[in-house]
C-alpha cells in the first residue's frame, strides 16, 4: 500500500514537471511524462492494462511488443546501431536546406 502511494505521488510529481517541461525548453517534458506513465503503470493494474492495450492496438508498436514478449528483443548489435543513429539524429540539424 505504501509502495503504491509512493508510486502515485512520484508519478503525479513527474507528470506536473513533464507538463511544465513541455512549455519550458530547459526541462525534458516528454521524458518526464514517459517516466510518469511508467510510475502509474507500476502503481495500477488498470492503467497498466490500458497502456498495454493501446500499444497492442497501435501497428507501429505491436511488432516490437511481440518481439519483446517472445524474448527476441533487440540484440546487442541492433542496440548499438540504434543508439548510434539516435545520437546522430539528435546532433544533426533537422533542416537540410
How does this model look, in words?
It is built from 5 helices and no strands. It is mainly alpha-helical. The chain has one domain. α1 runs antiparallel to α2 and α2 packs across α3. The longest helix is centred in the N-terminal third of the chain and has 22 residues. The radius of gyration is 17 Å and the shape is globular. The model has no long low-confidence stretch (mean pLDDT 80).
- List low-confidence stretches: none
Radius of gyration: 17 Å
Distance between the termini: 56 Å
Count of discrete structural domains: 1
* Beta-strand content: under 5%
* Total DSSP helices: 5
Roughly what is the average pLDDT, rounded to an integer? Answer: 80
Based on CA inertia axes, which overall geometry fits?
globular
Pairing-aware structural class of the strands and helices? mainly alpha
Task: Summarize the biggest pleated sheet.
Answer: none
> How many DSSP-defined strands?
0
Pattern of helices and strands: HHHHH
**What proportion of the residues is helical, as a percent range?**
over 70%
Characteristics:
single chain; 97 residues; mainly alpha; 5 helices; 0% strand
Q: Topology, please?
A:
Blueprint: H1 2-23, H2 29-43, H3 45-57, H4 59-69, H5 76-91
Helix pairs in contact: 1-2, 2-3
Write a brief structural summary.
This protein is mainly alpha-helical. The protein has 5 helices and no strands. The protein has one domain.
Amino acid at each position: 500500500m505504501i509502495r503504491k502511494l509512493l508510486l502515485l505521488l512520484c508519478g503525479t510529481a513527474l507528470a506536473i514537471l513533464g507538463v511544465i517541461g513541455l512549455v519550458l525548453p530547459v526541462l525534458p517534458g516528454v521524458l518526464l511524462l514517459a517516466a510518469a506513465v511508467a510510475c502509474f503503470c507500476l502503481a495500477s493494474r488498470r492503467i497498466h492494462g490500458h497502456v498495454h492495450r493501446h500499444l497492442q492496438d497501435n501497428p507501429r508498436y505491436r511488432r516490437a511488443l511481440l518481439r519483446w514478449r517472445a524474448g527476441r528483443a533487440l540484440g546487442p548489435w541492433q542496440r548499438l546501431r540504434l543508439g548510434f543513429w539516435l545520437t546522430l539524429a539528435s546532433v544533426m540539424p533537422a533542416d537540410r536546406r
